[in-house]
Write a structure and sequence with these properties.
The protein is of the alpha+beta class. It has eight helices and twelve strands. The chain has a six-stranded antiparallel beta sheet, with no helix packed on it. Strands 7-8-9-12-11-10 form a six-stranded antiparallel beta sheet. It is globular, with a radius of gyration of 20 Å.
């Protein structure tokens, strides 16, 4: 009987690990450092708090890779809520955007933009009293202190897009990705699992006017080893968290959405040669509030999980009537 109990416990643990490979809704409040904002270039983007007044995201979310003319209209980040809805969270205005100095040559500019990060400076501190989840900054590994190994497990949060088996609620088209999701992935060899993606990325850069070779040393390949989840279904600016630090971002549009069936993705590191001087310059803005043990951080995501329960209140949201004067947009409803 004891041997059967041991086998059952082992099988249950194995199933729990495998289930973790699918994008899942983390415990409420487990990601106090993640925000999102509407992007005029990429629809919706993810941001990471590096202090109470600064957000790290992908440069393609705030400027165009092919144009030197910047969109001067205001940007508001949404903080304090992991449920994406126009009536949730607190909006904080962005007053200044910091990006690396780029080459004026169109092809080079487009390539450099696709592997660049950006810092959004906020008008005021992210509030605690008015939000459901008090926001805190997470450490950023921009020096490359964490030497990552093959098959090392990391995770990437974001409001991911469609996943196999996703359902659409019939009223107002509430999708499951209105809730933030977390997906565990392993670091794998680029020449084995991201070769096709690298070739397509290189071809896309050539069409943009860049005829050199992209720096493979500045990116890493991540993969779902169970071949059930699709890491490319994410949002730009989504961070890759390894050892309780942000080590990379989903930055390059042309390195995504072209190989979703390969269960792999190319993410650009924050400690690459191209970004090192920029990250060193803006590192004075980094004031992390969270110094959590890596094992404790992962456990915190899974504590008391209920994957069938979503933060969705039909009694409230099914009866909302949107009209021409509403602040919601079509992208928010989708």
């Amino acid at each position: 009987m004891g041997r059967w109990k041991f086998a059952f416990d082992s099988l249950s643990g194995w199933l729990a690990v495998c289930a973790g490979r699918e994008p899942f809704k983390p415990r409420y409040g487990a990601l106090p450092w993640i925000v999102y904002f509407p992007s005029r270039y990429r629809g919706m983007c993810v941001g990471t708090l590096v202090s109470r007044v600064a957000v790290l995201t992908a440069a393609v979310c705030v400027t165009s890779p092919t144009s030197e003319i910047h969109d001067r209209r205001p940007i508001n980040i949404i903080t304090g809520s992991t449920y994406r809805h126009p009536r949730r969270g607190v909006r904080v205005q962005v007053t200044k955007i910091l990006i690396p100095r780029l080459n004026n040559i169109t092809g080079n500019r487009g390539y450099l933009m696709e592997k660049s990060a950006a810092i959004l400076l906020l008008k005021r501190k992210v509030p605690d009293a008015m939000v459901g989840i008090p926001q805190r900054a997470i450490p950023i590994d921009w020096k490359g202190d964490e030497v990552l190994t093959l098959q090392e497990e990391c995770f990437m949060p974001g409001w991911h897009f469609f996943y196999r088996g996703d359902r659409i609620y019939p009223i107002h088209r509430f999708l499951l990705q209105r809730n933030v999701r977390v997906q565990f992935m392993n670091i794998v060899k680029k020449n084995m699992w991201c070769e096709a993606l690298s070739i397509k990325f290189q071809k896309a850069l050539a069409n943009m006017g860049f005829f050199g070779y992209f720096d493979k040393g500045g990116c890493i390949c991540v993969k779902d080893p169970d071949r059930t989840a699709q890491p490319c279904h994410g949002m730009y600016g989504a961070p890759l968290v390894c050892r309780a630090k942000v080590v990379a971002l989903m930055m390059a549009p042309d390195a995504q959405w072209t190989n979703c069936t390969g269960f792999s993705n190319l993410l650009h590191t924050l400690s690459g040669n191209w970004l090192r001087s920029f990250m060193s310059c803006v590192s004075v803005l980094f004031e992390p509030d969270i110094k959590m043990d890596w094992r404790a951080m992962k456990k915190n995501l899974w504590e008391d999980p209920d994957h069938e329960q979503y933060d969705y209140v039909p009694a409230l949201y099914d009866k909302m009537n949107f009209h021409a004067g509403s602040t919601s947009t079509e992208s928010e409803e989708n």
